[in-house]
Amino acid sequence: MAIRASMREKDAIRAYVEDQAHEEVIHLEKAASELVGPVRHDIWDVHCPESRWWVVTNPTNLYSQQDFKSRDVVLTFHLGLALRLEYAREREVPVAPGSAELLPGSWRRWQQAFETYDSGDEAETFQAVGVRLRECLVSLLGETTSEELVPEGTQPPKRADFPRLGRAAPCVPSSDISTFMGPDDFR
Questions:
Q1: Is residue 180 part of a domain?
Q2: How many domains, in total, are found in the chain?
Q3: CB–CB of 73/42 below 8 Å?
Q4: Structural domain of residue 169, as residue ranges?
Q5: Cβ atoms within 10 A of the Cβ of 42, count?
């Protein structure tokens, strides 16, 4: 039993399959539409001269009906694949090409901390993440600060002693530090 579909929906699915499968679509129908959580997934039964496809939406992908015999199986697979892809996308750090090369030591330490976090399953592992992030911050300070920026007659801060941003940012004049911190940070 086919579900009603607009001509715009049909045209979009037809164009998608013809682009991806490199075959002319000879028949298509919306076979099901299911709400999974807050997302609606339409399942299309698409016939081409040499093949049949399931097309599942949100995100749209096609699956051979030789591999997936029922629409329930294809929807289950599609949901699992979509979750895995979303999880992988969320874990990516949006760094512009070349930006990581500006601070190589800091970036390497940050990646090590993330890898430790991502593979962690015990308290000791997560404590190690904190240590690695501290090393990352020390490296960042080493790569971005300069003794030339410390006002004359002022003792330069220790590079690895930063309980407050004021000690960790010798390049920011103390009169400007309040723009980076709230009033509670000065206690």
A1: no
A2: 2
A3: no
A4: 99-174
A5: 18
In a domain, 184, yes or no: no
Same structural domain for residues 39 and 72? yes
Contact indicator for 3, 31 with CB cutoff of 8 Å: yes
Element (H, E) at 65: none
pLDDT means per 10 residues, the chain with 187 residues, are: 89 97 96 94 97 96 96 95 85 72 85 84 87 87 79 76 52 47 45
Largest CA distance in the chain: 84
Do residues 120 and 93 lie in contact, with contact meaning Cβ atoms separated by under 8 Å? no
- The neighbour count for residue 18, using CB atoms within 10 Å, is 14
pTM: 0.57
| Rounded Cα distance, 161 and 151, in Å | 19
Tokens 């999974």 label which residue? 36
